Amino acid sequence: xxxxxxxxxxxxxxxxxxxxxxxxxxxxxxxxxxxxxxxxxxxxxxxxxxxxxxxxxxxxxxxxxxx
Amino acid sequence: xxxxxxxxxxxxxxxxxxxxxxxxxxxxxxxxxxxxxxxxxxxxxxxxxxxxxxxxxxxxxxxxxxxxxxxxxxxxxxxxxxxxxxxxxxxxxxxxxxxxxxxxxxxxxxxxxxxxxxxxxxxxxxxxxxxxxxxxxxxxxxxxxxxxxxxxxxxxxxxxxxxxxxxxxxxxxxxxxxxxxxxxxxxxxxxxxxxxxxxxxxxxxxxxxxxxxxxxxxxxxxxxxxxxxxxxxxxxxxxxxxxxxxxxxxxxxxxxxxxxxxxxxxxxxxxxx
Lengths: 67, 273
Fold this sequence. Notes:
Order of helices and strands of chain B: EEEHEHEHEHEHEHEHEHH
Oligomer: heterodimer
Structural class of chain A: mainly beta
Largest interface: A-B, 25 and 38 residues
Number of strands of chain B: 10
Helix content of chain A: 10-25%
Order of helices and strands of chain A: EEHEEE
Number of strands of chain A: 5
Strand order of the largest sheet of chain A: 2-1-5-3-4
Distance between the termini of chain A: 41 Å
Radius of gyration of chain A: 12 Å
Strand content of chain A: 35-45%
Largest sheet of chain B: 5 strands, parallel
């Protein structure tokens, strides 16, 4: 099991888990999102290759309306 | 008031260049505060804006998945996105937000930097703004920077390498219009990069006055989204920016308390004097 912090919320997932799989499981497959893992941006090109680790702190962001 | 020695031909384009790219519209609009995405799209279409600001926010886990997004209604293929750092109170947060925006929007470089200093007034923190601008310019971002209407700070931001200086007209969301036209004028006269009024525009005449002063453009959100009829106000702003630009290029007549020189000829008067 993987304990992750996503946008400040604690979540538990079955491992192993790549960034791509996580984004799919959260329902954001095909959406334009950006992900930061432990303070470092994970480029989209590496989403499929990066395996998440227990305790990872993630930020998942989108563009929203703003001025 | 000065104006360009050479003005573009009336029939020709009067292009507005930001970071090496030409635009037809000098009105930049935000995408926040609309009742839904349909209204957002309609207002932006009515405004004629080609550059639109967006915010970067955490996804709402478990609540927003599968819902349409802003990008579905305003595709980046149709508009130039200008991700902002609204809500950031430190240079670190602003830099982090824009790095995420760059990743989110496929190596997108044109950004709006704003670092706030006070939650009540949303007044900019210029010290943090300068720090963030230095880092972002070094990282290759094209930084359009929101700041106070201080000509000295504006010059520093240009020297750092910001591609546009965006002084406030009045406080964000206040709709108070242009409170200090003379400072804006000083900034315009000294700047070799575009100067845009950002924040404080309340209605169309405010936008026109900014353009008549010689601003290269105007950026607004609440003035349109907060109007009773946002689509109509978007159109009003489009026309006001165009009218203000034309008036600036045309050059206003001198102000005189009175002239004793009427527009109609004095010869051939029917009346006897």
